[in-house]
Amino acid sequence: MSKLNTAALQAMDAAHYLHPFTDHKDLGARGTRIIERAEGVYLWDSEGNKVLDGMAGLWCVNIGYGRTELAEAAYKQMLKLPYYNSFFQCTNPPAIELAKAIAEVAPEHMNHVFFTGSGSESNDTVLRMVRRYWDLKGKPGKKTIISRVNGYHGSTVAGASLGGMSVMHEQGDLPIPGIVHIPQPYWYGEGGDMSPDEFGIWAAQQLEAKIQELGIDQVGAFIAEPIQGAGGVIIPPDTYWPEIKRILAKYDILLVIDEVICGFGRTGQWFASQHYDLKPDLMPIAKGMTSGYLPMGGVIVSDRVVETMVEHGGEFYHGYTYSGHPASAAVGLENLRIMRDEKIVEYVREEAAPYLQEKIAGLAEHRLVGEVRGVGLLGAIELVKDKATRERFPDKGTVGTLCRDLCVANGLVMRAVGDTMIMSPPLVISRSEIDELVDKAWKVLDQVAEQLGV
Ligand code: PMP
Q1: What is the pLDDT of residues 349-366, one digit of tens each?
Q2: What strands, in cross-sheet order, belong to the sheet with 297-302?
Q3: Domains (ranges, CATH) in the chain?
Q4: Ligand 1 site, residue 152, Cβ cutoff 6 A
């Protein structure tokens, strides 16, 4: 542990460390919080403050902090073989075993994994693989990928282009060509006078309209998060996925379901594709794959796509130095063992998720809250000025940021997306910890209301 005190660390941080997704001028003025250690669902900062981590790090620490088994798996693997590549006909035992273990929990028609180093890299792989697939099929025109406004698929050039975040697109002439966006299924924010069910159908039909507009010989794939995470835990209306499935059955395009957040138990199934009964061709994964203990990502690939690549042959000129990294793979394998042996997915489905959803539903009674929604261990709370009309506060994000800051001051991490508060706690969160999370959230909402004078 660092012997430097908080002020010295902050000064050094400001002098040398450029943070991701940060206004560097603003950060210099506000200073940083230094997170020093963690155990279970709790974090401690360098001032000794204990905080309940309602976001599982960045949606990734699924089995919770402090599991020595994962540290030991990394240690042993690093002593034995810290690194070797999977190029040039080589491979390594942990990567092989992890690919098999993932195939065992993936949907039945998906039996192969392409390893990457992160979720963003996984979506770069998706872009390359979709185009490679259609080239091999003799349909090279099918290059366009349809995505959604306010989706998130990472921060590399392909990831940010596939994503539908306008602020990201504005920086650097994105999206790159061949990626188009349709509206998102965000009923609370954009449903207007339609019922959720009507809006779900409408939003799904935007896919069909876009395919027809572009022409089926131009469209290679549709990519979506099963539940949009970074966009604000946006859960599509019940009608959405069935209508998307109806459309996909009509047109020959690939389905890419981005499981970077939802994969590895978040919804109470191994993958949200199983929760929504979807049959993807490609599933980008990361985060919960190693519970964040070491960086790793991948793309789970359907038999249909693999068979095409094997049948036609020819090198796929794509891969990363750290594809199938032995130490990350060893950690991933141990993470999966723990999830299976301790029945963590079953725990989410049968105990933690029903309890969390029941408890957070009560927050809808609060005068600032327009809607509470959730699936599994994902939750969102919409902060509004007027519950009846869904009217927002002026200056989008101001109230959300206030709420987020008060959360931290009260020992709770929740994230703000505009004025939507979101949560995604470790999957191992207990009932009493859920009680603590919801009690703190209510107390913070009161403090926000008080500061706003409402
Ligand atoms: N896809 C989704 C759905 C994500 O939520 C994220 C990260 N939040 C990514 C991709 C990108 O992952 P990474 O940050 O590991 O590159």
Answers
A1: 999 999 999 999 999 999
A2: 110-116, 297-302, 282-285, 254-257, 219-224, 144-148, 179-182
A3: 33-63+343-452 (3.90.1150.10), 69-341 (3.40.640.10)
A4: yes
